[in-house]
Automatic annotation (TrEMBL):
<dbReference type="GO" id="GO:0016887">
    <property type="term" value="F:ATP hydrolysis activity"/>
</dbReference>
<keyword id="KW-0067">ATP-binding</keyword>
<keyword id="KW-0813">Transport</keyword>
<protein>
    <submittedName>
        <fullName>ABC transporter ATP-binding protein</fullName>
    </submittedName>
</protein>
<keyword id="KW-0547">Nucleotide-binding</keyword>
<dbReference type="GO" id="GO:0005524">
    <property type="term" value="F:ATP binding"/>
</dbReference>
<feature type="domain" description="ABC transporter">
    <location>
        <begin position="4"/>
        <end position="231"/>
    </location>
</feature>
Length: 231
């Protein structure tokens, strides 16, 4: 039984003459253990689909199932790493991660260790009391990753997580993420990454779901058959 399954998902925006179909008839599954990339041009509905999968938005029609149960009947426990980090600027690195745990109701004693451990894992040891503005883009996104992973989501969603970074920072962060993921250090069942970067999708994912626009729909699914160190 797949971790996530979308059945005939459709999203219509606007009404009357402005009514248009952003995504049409999307069927897809995400299995446990998979790193899936959602690849397509700007405007094909990738962000819309991410919001639907994480329950931030209900589709106009169709079904989203988590382990076979409709999304509105379960707490899906997914987190998102955003393109532009979305950190709270008035909170320190530690406080940004700690707050995410607090919101999920994690007890204070557990929170501190979990946050420090995660920050250490992503290479931010020593930066706990820094503010986001004092960090480089790459380091800010590491906080974004630490915050998303700390709550141990079943599905970790990444929305163009490297596209706001310079090439070198993006390259090194991709490598570090893959190292953590392949070594099992990320306690999540699957990763779904939205991107319009083909190389990034093929390098990182086990499977690439291709989308196209007008209307947004899935036009193919590509298994990456290169031998993976995880196997
Ligand atoms: P992508 O992430 O692939 O760029 P989006 O999901 O952001 O695609 O957008 C798909 C299409 O739907 C675009 O044409 C966008 O302008 C439109 N759209 C997205 N969100 C909304 C919204 N809340 N209301 C109206 N149109 C929207
Ligand atoms: P991205 O493509 O990086 O996700 P966008 O700039 O397309 O970002 O969209 C940013 C936000 O604006 C999203 O929440 C999206 O739903 C909303 N949005 C995008 N297009 C429209 C639109 N035509 N009308 C209303 N809201 C929109």
């Amino acid at each position: 039984i797949p971790l996530v399954e979308l059945k005939n998902v459709q999203q219509v925006y606007g009404s009357g003459a402005r009514r248009f179909t952003a995504i049409q008839d999307v069927n897809l599954i995400i299995r446990e253990g998979e790193f899936v990339a959602l690849l397509g041009p700007s405007g094909c509905g990738k962000s819309t689909l991410l919001r639907i999968i994480t329950g931030l938005q209900s589709p106009t029609s169709g079904q989203v199932l988590y382990r076979g149960t409709p999304l509105h009947d379960v707490n899906p426990y997914a987190t998102i790493v955003f393109q532009t980090f979305a950190l709270f600027p008035w909170l320190t690195v530690f406080e940004n991660v700690d707050l995410a745990l607090k919101v999920r109701g994690v007890a204070a004693e557990v929170r501190k260790n979990r946050a420090l451990e995660l920050l250490d894992k992503v290479g931010l040891d020593g930066f706990e009391t820094a503010y986001p503005r004092e960090l480089s883009g790459g380091m800010r996104q590491k906080v974004g990753f630490a915050r998303a992973i700390a709550v141990e989501p079943e599905l970790l969603c990444l929305d163009e997580p490297f596209s706001a970074l310079d090439l070198l920072s993006a390259e090194s962060l991709r490598g570090e993420l893959m190292e953590l993921w392949l070594s099992g250090a990320i306690p999540t069942r699957a990763i779904l990454m939205v991107t319009h970067n083909i190389e990034e999708a093929v390098f990182m994912a086990d499977r690439v779901i291709l989308m196209d626009k007008e209307p947004g729909r899935v036009v193919g699914s590509l298994d990456i058959t290169l031998p993976h160190p995880r196997q």
